[in-house]
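Attaching the record inline, Q. Sequence:
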Amino acid sequence: MKPSSLHIIHGFKTALAAILAYTVTIVFNLEFGYWAVISTVIVMQVYVADSVEMCLYRLSGTLIGAVLGVGVMMTIPQTPVWIGLALFVTIGICAFLTRYKTRYRMAAITVVIIIMTGIANPDILMFGVDRVFEIGIGILCAFGVSVLVFPKRKADVLKKRLADQAGACEILCRDLVDGFINRQQHVDGTPMDDLMDEVRGNQAFFLNVHRHEARIYRLADNFQAKVFLMGRTVEHLRTMVRILNGIDGEGYDIIMAKELEAIGRASSHTLIALMTNAEDIGREQLAGQVTALDKRLADVREEGLIRRFDLKHLVQVVSFYNSLKYYAEDILAGADRIRPH
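Structure, as predicted:
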C-alpha cells in the first residue's frame, strides 16, 4: 500500500475512534469526556502493533499517574505554592522514570490532569477514578478501531521486508560470484551497506509483532527463524564483499566457476522461496550443489591445480569459497528450522 493511502486510512480511523469515544461520553454524560477523545488521538497509530503498544503505555501510565496525583492531592494543602511544588516533584519523577519505561510520560500527563483540574474538587478520589474511566474509554475505542477497521499489521510489513531483502541478497550474491570468477574484480560495497541497515531493523519489527500483534492474530510465518536466517546470510555476503575487495592486482581464472555460479543460484532460490512462503524451496537441489562443490574442490586439489595461486590470492580464493559455502549451508539449516522435514 502506498504511503499516501496508508495515512489516509490512518486519518479516517483516528477520526472514527475519536467520534466513537465522543459518543460514549455523551451517552454516559461525562463531565470531562474530552479526555477520552484526546486519548484516542494519542494512542492511535498507523499499525496495529504500535497502537496496542501505545494503548498499554497509556493505560498503565494513566493508572500510575492517577495513583500518584490523587495521593499528592490528598496529602498537601490546596494552596498555589503547594500545588506548584507538587507539580514540580511529580512531573520531575515521572520524567526521570522515562529512562526505564516510556509509560511514565503518560503518567506525567495524568498527574497534571488530576492536580490542575482537581484543585477545587471536594472528592479527589472519585475525581481521579472518573479521569481513569474517561481515558480508558478513549483507549478502548482506539484499540477496537485499530484492530477491527482496516487493520494494518506490522507482520505484513515484516513479511514484505524479508522478501525484498531476499531479492537484494540474490542480486548481491550474483554480483559477488561474477566478480570473483572474473579474475576477482572489486565490487561496489554501497548495496551491501544499505542491505545491512535494512536487516538491522528486522529484530525490532519482529519484537513488536511478537509482543503485540501475536496476542491478537495467529501468525503463520516463523518470523523468528526467518529474521535470524536473514541476519546470518547477510553477514556471509558482507564477508564475501570484504574478501573480494581486500586484494588488489591481477587476479586468476577460476576453474570451479560453473559450480560456484550454480550454488549461488540455488542458495538464492531457496532463500527467496523461504521468505515468500513458496511451495518448492529447492532444499534437495541446494544440498546437492553443496555436495557437488565439495567433490569438485577435492578433485581440483588432487590434481594440484591450486598450486598456481600466490599466497595472498590463495587465501582470498579459499576464504571466498568457504564464505559462499557457509552461505549455502546456513540457508539449508534455516530451511530445516522454517520448514522442518
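Residues 154-181 form the longest helix (28 residues). Residues 113 and 131 are 8 Å apart (CA to CA).

More tomorrow.
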